[in-house]
Write a structure and sequence with these properties.
single chain, mainly beta, SH3 type barrels, five-stranded antiparallel β-sheet
């Protein structure tokens, strides 16, 4: 099996393991957590390969009540300083 022609031409990941990130949102109560993994995946909405991250949600994050880990595309995340909770 051959990899797609443009697979190896991807950019280096923007975020490191252990880095605190949040989802980019116009809402002030977006989810946040730390990077515990990442993988290079095909993004059909861009018709290209992109970085996707595994985020361990902070216990104070809204979705942490029903979800401990989530995934997000790199373009949907930004660095985040933990609020005083």
């Amino acid at each position: 099996m051959n990899l797609p022609a443009n697979f190896s031409k991807g950019k280096s990941p923007r975020f490191e393991y252990g880095e605190r990130l949040r989802w980019i949102s116009a809402q002030p109560d977006t989810d946040w957590g730390i990077v515990i993994g990442r993988f290079y995946n095909y993004a059909p909405h861009h018709d290209n390969w992109m970085w996707c991250y595994l985020i361990w949600l902070d216990p104070h994050s809204t979705s942490a009540a029903w979800c401990q880990v989530d995934t997000a595309w790199e373009e949907d995340l930004e660095v985040f300083d933990t609020p005083n909770a």
